[in-house]
């Protein structure tokens, strides 16, 4: 392992000296929109040095520098253009309203994005809400909801709340304790108040199903044991920890304790020992995965296959900036209109709309998230595409699909 200067764990403050993965010069703003290839290729870059705390099970980027990441109107990470994700978000909102009795309550969402989830949960329960997000760029025409274009800081904790929702934000916060203590203050003294937090599951990242989620803006990688320990240390009672969305997300539901004395976090040594073994294997697994994809792209190029990457999110940025020969990917497709016409940070690939594939007829469509595989297959079929949809690098290359070539020959004969 790489042994740089020791650094304190952001959850339990234990000094962590070793690093199990190091990546240099990765784009720091991997969800930003860039109008030209030149701008995308000249993005700020930083280093990733993943550290594992053997005391509490926390994983974090020891080389993270907060000032390198920008969250403003150029930040675009909405997934609401995916039917699969919309179905998930709608069912989640329904469950939270029913499970926590959110009827006529005051809802606060930390990192509300475009505000769609907040609006959904307010509509389903007749609630009012406030959303905090410096990247909010739209107009939410709803008199029951206020959007504050700022981060949820100490002053925001004065905003009344019966329920605080925070999805895919905590992994971006270098000092997560501070945020949780602010949320605790907002909820304290309100009967029945509760919080719901959702983060990427570090086990899914380390085991390979979400391996491309190693990105610079994620300074923290939570497992169930480290997430529970963090909440307990910040005066919360943890009620439930679940996994969802193809076992990629980790969700925690908790309520504030009136006792101000921090609990001793319930770190389970057996869980941490298992996690330690996963961490030890990850560096080799990551390198092997990169090599497999590099060989696949090389062979696909040699056989004249047109390869397209479906999805221009953070996973795509990691993939394209990590895989040798990723310039062989012909196009990057995304269903989000805001991303279409922009360029991928680091590599400068242009993002196109799915409709553009009708004229180019790709041979292979890569999706880095298997959750979306079925959705992409349906969309591709509805467009008349004959491309193979893959989530893993298959070698030898998939057999040729002759339909398009036979049609071209028939047209020449006539």
Number of helices: 11
Kindly, what is the distance between the CA atoms of the first and last residues, rounded to a whole number of angstroms? 65 Å
Q: Order the strands across the largest sheet as they lie in space.
A: 8-7-6-9-10-13-12
Q: Any guess at the CATH architecture of the domain at 280-413? A: 3-Layer(aba) Sandwich
Beta-strand proportion = 15-25%
Class of the domain at 280-413 in CATH?
Alpha Beta
- Poorly predicted regions are 403-414
Q: Under CATH, the topology of the domain at 280-413 is which? A: Rossmann fold
The residue fraction in helices comes out at 25-40%
Largest sheet: 7 strands, mixed
Radius of gyration from the alpha-carbon trace, in angstroms:
22 Å
Order of helices and strands: EEEHEEHEHEEEHEHEHEEHEHEEHEHEH
For this structure, what is the CATH homologous superfamily of the domain at 280-413? Answer: NAD(P)-binding Rossmann-like Domain
- The count of DSSP E runs of length 2 or more, i.e. the number of strands, is 18
Secondary-structure class: alpha/beta
